[in-house]
Amino acid sequence: MTMSKMILVVFFLALSNVGDAHPNYGKALRKSVLFFQGQRSGRLPSDQKLTWRSDSAVNDGSSAGVDLSGGYYDAGDNVKFNFPMAFTTTMLAWSAMEFAKRMGDQLDNTREAIRWSTDYLIKSATQTKGRIYVGVGDGNADHSCWERPEDMDTPRTVYSISANSPGSDVAAEIAAALASASILFRKVDPVYSVKLLGVAADVMQFAMDHQGKYSDSIGCNYYCSYSGYKDELLWGAAWMFRATNNATYAKFLNSLDANDATDIFSWDNKFAGARVLLARKSLVDNIDSFNSFRTQAEEFICKIHPNSPSSTTKYTTGGLMFKLSHANLQYVTSISFLLFTYAKYMAHAKTSFECGSGVVMTQTTLRSLAKTQVDYILGRNPLKMSYMVGYGEKYPMKIHHRGSSLPSISIHPENINCQGGFQYYESGEVNPNILTGAVVGGPNENDAFADDRKNYAHSEPATYINAPLVGCLAYLVSSPGQ
């Protein structure tokens, strides 16, 4: 056995004696999709399953004379940020596209979760000519309160971009969300699919014509565009090309100077995701002009895999990929999704690639690494703890989430004002409402986790943590041993 193979074996054996060999991926998938109901804003439908939630923010947009009700709260707060919401939507759509045949009855539920967002994004992009609405709610005011979304009394400030105040990043991400969703709805609702793609084309044109960072235009305290906007232009154009096969987008892709190397994939940095998506044209469609994206995608994977000599990725003693201390599991789920997806493309092409001399990456190599990450999240870790709320015997009970931590309206119909909720925030009691399926930020670099709602960096859930996990779980439902 070579030294490189020994390193890989030792890495995977690190998880061999913790937790169950194969978690119940089907159950985890159902819960992960259900989570999005707990994040809904607006008027809730009669079939709402997480019944501790009620209608909220139904008048969003009224201060600007438009209807911006609906969509999702991004995490444990009550603000709507279109930038991470659109990324969440794109990842849900991509998950369902790649692994639709493995999703079973969760495919329709996933489409429903996507539509809850795309209906809102369409409204954001079409109500005022020349203007795209990109968020609702004053983040600073909201974060100074601890109250249920149903009781909100903080300003529902409306933020927007225009030709004079550009935002290529958020506009291109909205285009990606709508374009990817249009593919998913093409057969089941062709009229809606056409509408999605039409709006996506308009928004993408805006992103290309009026280039700039949205956080420069509207100011930024939350979800700033740290990586700039070229990654979103690449990402948005990639999805438009996938949805339309229009050569205009291929030409635009080749014109972009977007060669930044990266070892991360997130709501902010889309380079790796775009390159994996575009590599499909090389691996699956055999189009040589896309080989450069394939090379970049493989360079990214070589920066991730622990057996690669060019790896820049840290792993905990327990085997968890560790990128950043704040909500690290968002990077784990998104990167794991890319590994599963690229492995699928490799399987189609019957190919492998090298990370340095003699270090061969196969589809099995990628899938094995991704599986260890998902298994860790579901309880195969040193603490034998699931980081998905409501899954397994041991999971976080005091998550940083306003609606979950406060008594529901059915139990406490009286208003709980801005400061009134802090008595629940400060208490050591478990949350009264189970936000089923929510995946929290996760453990620290030492595999340690404190179940404490005050520790938002580790105990707060977010839509963009769950969205790529849906695809990972869908793959594993039918391939638990791989």
From TrEMBL:
Residue ranges of every copy of the Glycoside hydrolase family domain listed in the record = 25-473
Give EC number(s), comma-separated: 3.2.1.4
Highest taxon of the lineage: Eukaryota
Write the lineage as a comma-separated list. Answer: Eukaryota, Viridiplantae, Streptophyta, Embryophyta, Tracheophyta
Q: What class of enzyme is it?
A: hydrolase
Supply the source organism for this entry: Zostera marina (Eelgrass)
Give one GO molecular function term.
cellulase activity
Protein's UniProt name: Endoglucanase
Q: Which range is the signal sequence, renumbered to this chain?
A: 1-21
Query: Is Flavoprotein included in the keywords of this UniProt record?
Result: no
Q: Which family does it belong to?
A: Belongs to the glycosyl hydrolase 9 (cellulase E) family.
